[in-house]
Write a structure and sequence with these properties.
Number of helices: 7
Low-confidence stretches: 1-11, 17-39, 53-81
Distance between the termini: 200 Å
Helix content: over 70%
Strand content: under 5%
Shape: rod-shaped
Oligomer: single chain
Order of helices and strands: EHHEHHHHH
Radius of gyration: 64 Å
Keywords: Coiled coil
Largest sheet: 2 strands, antiparallel
Length: 289
């Protein structure tokens, strides 16, 4: 089976992109200074290496030398012999096997990103070795080899651009960072206002605390004064309570003392008068006349 390859291949496009990027980078370095000129020239040299390695766009035969097929004999065969050609069956199976390997390899290449393509190289080599053991795939091997060589060159060129970014990435990153700055500045202003309000409140609370401390000191002095008066009052109260208890006891005694009846008072009064008369008589008695 023959495969015709016409028009620019992926490697042509890849090389043109690298060439354009490197020339632009060299022009920029020449305008901005001579520090990166040597690096840019080295990049152009790598791009030229890609162009040298690239397989030309030609009529490529994937299976250049097909396996020999078994030709049945021309003489008549007995009717009892089955027409089964083992070589043809084996050849078809090998073709199908090679096609299956190539489909799997193509699928892996198509879904692998360029950044991780180098890791696929050893697997591709193993596939090609197995395919090459069944048929001639020299043209395909050349394409795959050139592709992975270009991948290595691409990785080298990309590594030389470390620390740099595209204009689109630069503008996007700058815009995002400036937007974040505006947001943070707004938050900063809010925090400044919040801090100022809190400082004002703390100052007011400090003044209030000072006033309360002064009031507390005044109250403490009043408490000490009142405590002193209270102690004095307690002493006075204690003495008064003692006097009250004594008077109550005396009153109790008085209340328990038997009282004279009116008749007794009259009798006692009469006796006092008689005694007073006797007293007067004795006072006026003259013993010797």
């Amino acid at each position: 089976m023959e495969v015709s390859v016409t028009g620019p291949s992926k490697f042509d496009i890849f090389s043109n992109v690298v060439h354009t990027s490197l020339n632009a980078n060299l022009t920029k370095n020449l305008d901005g200074g001579g520090n990166d000129v040597a690096n840019s020239q080295a990049m152009i040299q790598m791009e030229n290496t890609i162009m040298t390695r690239r397989t030309p766009s030609i009529q490529t035969t994937l299976l250049k030398q097909p396996l020999k097929t078994f030709k049945p004999p021309t003489w008549p065969l007995p009717s009892t012999v089955s027409e089964f050609y083992s070589e043809e069956v084996i050849s078809n199976c090998q073709r199908e096997y090679v096609s299956m390997l190539w489909r799997n390899l193509k699928q892996q290449i198509s879904k692998t990103s360029l950044e991780h393509m180098s890791s696929l190289n050893k697997h591709a080599t193993r596939f090609l070795e197995e395919m090459g053991s069944k048929t001639d795939i020299s043209a395909l091997q050349g394409l795959i080899k050139t592709f992975f060589e270009n991948i290595e060159t691409y990785n080298s060129v990309k590594a030389s651009f470390d620390g740099k970014m595209t204009q689109e990435s630069y503008e996007g990153l700058l815009s995002t960072t400036q937007q974040n700055l505006r947001i943070i500045e707004m938050q900063e202003q809010e925090q400044v206002k919040s801090v100022e309000d809190l400082e004002s409140q703390i100052t007011q609370l400090g003044n209030k605390e000072t006033e309360l401390k002064e009031q507390l000191e005044h109250l403490c002095a009043q408490r000490e004064e009142k405590t002193m008066v209270l102690n004095q009052s307690r002493e006075i109260l204690k003495k008064a309570q003692v006097e009250v208890a004594g008077l109550r006891e005396e009153i109790q005694k008085i209340e328990n003392t038997p009282r004279l009846s009116e008749e007794d008072v009259k009798v006692l009064g009469k006796m006092e008068r008689l005694l007073e008369e006797d007293q007067n008589e004795l006072s006026s008695f003259q013993f010797f006349g």
